[in-house]
Design brief:
Elements (H helix, E strand, L loop, with lengths): L1 H24 L9 E25 L2 E28 L9 E12 L2 E8 L5 E24 L1
Antiparallel strand pairs: 1-2, 2-5, 3-4, 3-5, 4-5
């Protein structure tokens, strides 16, 4: 019984050393940042819509100003302002937020309404946002918005 305990202790020590050595020599994968996004966008149009706005990306307590613009083609009628707040997924570097986002957004407002957006860019960054909009607007479109770091 004593020999088994001794063997187990030696085996445990060797395995611990091996695991520690692997962590020293294998580069860890770059972790995703925990980030939130807040956008204020004015949009309008008839069939072809345009949007522009500003926002803030907040990651680990740091704030990064953003500008937003884009064109949309689809059922778009009206003029509205939307405030979106959400989560940023798959962001590995701050610069990855920049790009043209495509995805699906659906909204309806007559004075005020809900807006939900899920969009991704070529860097693999995904935005999952919800918000309220004010104005007269009805849209169901596949479109692109471009986000830039200021």
């Amino acid at each position: 019984m004593n020999n088994i305990n001794q063997f187990m202790n030696i085996l445990t020590a060797k395995l611990t050393f091996l695991v520690a050595a692997l962590f020293l020599f294998v580069a860890p994968a770059q972790a995703q940042m925990a980030c939130q996004i807040n956008l204020v966008i004015t949009k309008g149009g008839f069939v072809i819509g345009a949007s522009s706005g500003n926002g803030t990306l907040t990651c680990d307590g740091q704030r990064y100003p953003l500008s937003v613009g884009g064109l949309r083609v689809g059922l778009t009628i009206g003029l509205s302002k939307v405030n979106l707040v959400g989560e940023v997924r798959n962001l590995r570097e701050i610069s990855d937020i920049a790009g043209t986002y495509s995805g699906v957004g659906a909204s309806a407002a007559l004075g005020g309404g809900a807006n939900n957006v899920v969009a991704s860019n070529a860097n693999g960054v995904q935005l999952v946002m919800r918000g309220r909009q004010v104005g007269i607007d009805a849209s169901l479109d596949l479109g692109g918005m471009t986000i830039r770091l200021k």
